Amino acid sequence: MATVKFEDALSRLETIVTELEQGDLSLHESLKIFEEGIKLSKSCLKMLDDAERKVAILVQDTNGQKRLEAYSVDEDAGEPHLSA
Question: Minimal CA–CA distance to 11: which of 50, 53, 43, 55?
Fold first, then answer.
């Protein structure tokens, strides 16, 4: 799945829920968009988790002072990396 913005993914998820709730789709189409929704949901959860880790890093306290550090996620390992 290509990288998608959080807001776009959330909007598409809302559309999927509406379509599924209407019940007008065939079983095949319902399963197809349900699968898309699961993938989008996992993607959103990962983006939220990454954002939460970034915020935690940005507000870490060192000697009573707030400090900011560069943050990036290693796409292969999914681990954050800090640079001083």
Answer: 43
